[in-house]
Amino acid sequence: MATSNTSCIVHDRKYLSKFHGTINQIRRTNEFSSSILQRLPKRCCTCHNQTGAYPLTFDDLRKLCQEMKLTENGIPSTADCSNNVHYVILEFSSILSQIQHMYQVGRFIGRGGSHLRLLESTLNVRINIINDKSS
Question: Of 34, 49, 72, which marks where a domain is finished?
């Protein structure tokens, strides 16, 4: 990690090599488009605002790229945005009839989705149900 108190981390020769090295590390992950990586130096330039220390770490630049990606896609950015997706499969006994199967699914969802909304709000999760009718 390198920090700059008075110099621009993008334009100063002292920090330029480390800055470009960090951008190349991000580029090698293939997580972000080239348009985001091309705009990154402009977002990190501190020429007109030279107060304080500016961290130059992989994680900080990656978070900045994630924010840029979210705003590019029109999704509001959140501080704790996670890209983790977990799938949970509801398993049923093979001896259940189709009617019993639908009854148990209905009990899990609740009337008008009340059980799912309660689960989403208490655990701070988003639940999507994928079935034969889903596209």
Answer: 72
pLDDT level of residue 79 (50, 70, 90 thresholds): very low
Domain holding 23, by residue range, is 2-72
Say how many C-beta atoms besides its own lie within 10 A of residue 61's C-beta. Answer: 20
Q: What average pLDDT does this structure show over 97-105?
A: 81
Predicted TM-score of the model (pTM):
0.46
Please work out, in degrees rounded to the nearest 5, the angle formed at the alpha carbon of residue 64 by the alpha carbons of 30 and 79: 115
- How far is Cα 78 from Cα 69, in angstroms, rounded to an integer? 12
Going by the DSSP 8-state scheme, the letter that residue 6 receives in this structure is S
**Helix, strand, or coil here: 15?**
helix
